[in-house]
Amino acid sequence: MKIAIMGAMPEEVAPILKKLGSYKTTKYADNEYYEATYKGVEVVVAYSKIGKVFSTLTASTMIQHFKCDRLLFSGVAGGINPNLKIGDLIVASKLAQHDLDITAFGHPLGFVPGGSVFVQADRELIELSKEVALELGTTVQEGIIATGDQFVHDARVKENIVKHFNADALEMEGASVGVICDALGIAFFILRAISDTADTDASFSFDEFMESSAIISAEFIMKMVDKIVD
Ligand code: SAH
Q: How far is CA 55 from CA 127, 133, 150, 175, 196, in A?
């Protein structure tokens, strides 16, 4: 077993690296990868940088170069579902690319021929997260995550994403990571803690809560890892 744990920003993986203690840093494809043995299991940690392209590159590298056989993503997201408050956890049941748009040819938003609008996350890992939440006395809400190369801070954009995907949260990496894992047959799990609600004040909320929410997500991810290696 070799577990990939990724985030998009340094703040998202810092709490994970802290937990690992010592690790080996390897430079590859213009990024850093941190390799460690955690409770007897090999793990590879990295932050991809923001967006679909960088996250695709990192996920692909972790699987194809570092030979990870499952992938857990930890990070922050903008909440859409009003039940999701700042700091709340959402685990993706399925994800879509909200900015993949060839609707001009009659296709649904998020669809390209040969692909599908949604990519499904691994059911077993989702169920495992519910056990972990129960044990910790916390809640993880399962829901749909929409991904795009855009920091959303506009209620109208949010509404449009709900209309097309019925999404509960949005971010900038989950679906691209999911598509890669799905194509390579690797079980994946996308966890996000809410940092903002993607409205006009989203950037202020993000700046205030990104770090604390990133910690909430990272701590939960490490409990997932504990459970997986058990
Ligand atoms: N403050 C950063 C930019 C953050 S971009 C800088 O200046 O460098 C937002 C990041 O958090 C992305 O990785 C994305 O996945 C997630 N995110 C949180 N809230 C979001 C929102 N409202 N819209 C899109 N992505 C969001």
A: 25, 26, 14, 9, 21
124 is a catalytic site residue: no
> Two tokens at 148?
């795009």
pTM of the model: 0.98
Between the CA of 82 and the centroid of ligand 1 the distance, in Å, is: 19
- Distance (Å, rounded) from C-alpha 130 to C-alpha 185? 23
CA 157, CA 92: separation in Å to the nearest integer? 20
Q: Which residues contact 86 (CB under 8 A, 6 or more apart)?
A: 79, 194, 195, 196, 197, 205, 209, 213
Question: Among residues 11, 12, 173, 182, which one is catalytic?
Answer: 12
> How far apart are the C-alpha atoms of 152 and 143, rounded to whole Å?
18
Supply the CATH classification number for the domain 2-229: 3.40.50.1580
Question: What would the pLDDT profile of 97-142 be if each residue is shown by its tens digit?
Answer: 999 999 999 999 999 999 999 999 999 999 999 999 999 999 999 9
- From the list 124, 142, 196, 208, the catalytic residue is 196
Q: Which of 95, 128, 28 is nearest to 68 (CA)?
A: 28
How far apart CA 104 and CA 216 sit, in angstroms, is: 41
Beta strands at 31-38 and 187-196: parallel, antiparallel or unpaired: unpaired
Distance CA 228, CA 219 (A): 14
Identity at 136, one-letter amino acid code: L
Question: How do the domains of the chain map onto residue ranges?
Answer: 2-229
